[in-house]
Design a protein that fits this description.
Helices cover 56% and strands 3% of the residues. It is mainly α and 133 residues long. The chain has 2 domains: 1-39, no CATH class; 52-130, no CATH class. Strands 1-2 form a two-stranded antiparallel sheet. The protein is rod-shaped, with a radius of gyration of 25 Å. The termini are far apart. 23% of the residues are buried. Bound molecules: zinc ion.
């Protein structure tokens, strides 16, 4: 049993790679091994969510919240933008290019961070003036 051993999903036969290469088909039942490792999702019709634009909703939300946090100096909005942007980037990275909007998510994180920094900065300045420091 090694890490490169694979199981046929149809007949449960263990297929060990010979000479470093795993056979493309199960020698027992002939099932495609690429299908065994990555079962194809049968989609009878094109559902919503297959287009990258649909799946990048979190990235867009992060970007919009980032902009708002910058405008209104919202620490909470900035934090949400960073969290959403990080989640979006993880999902985008895990999608192997199926989901777009990575730049948007990065922009959301950056804007959120700047928004927080701006809020904290303004808070310190105005707080300082108010208390005569
Ligand atoms: Zn098999």
């Amino acid at each position: 049993m090694s890490a490169s051993d694979r199981f046929c999903t149809q007949c449960r036969h263990t297929i060990s790679p010979r000479g470093g290469a795993t056979p493309e088909y199960c020698p027992i039942c002939g099932r495609s091994m690429s299908a065994a490792t990555a079962p194809p999702r049968t989609v009878p019709y094109a559902p919503r969510g297959t287009s990258p634009a649909d799946r990048a909703g979190k990235a867009t939300a992060s970007f919009v919240l980032g902009i708002f946090s910058l405008i209104v100096c919202g620490v909470v909005l900035g934090i949400i933008a960073i969290v959403l942007g990080s989640q979006a980037r993880k999902e985008i990275d895990a999608s192997n290019g199926r989901v777009g909007g990575r730049g948007l998510a990065t922009a959301g994180i950056t804007l959120g961070a700047v928004g927080i920094a701006k809020s904290v900065g303004f808070g310190l300045i105005f707080g300082g003036l108010r208390f005569g420091l």
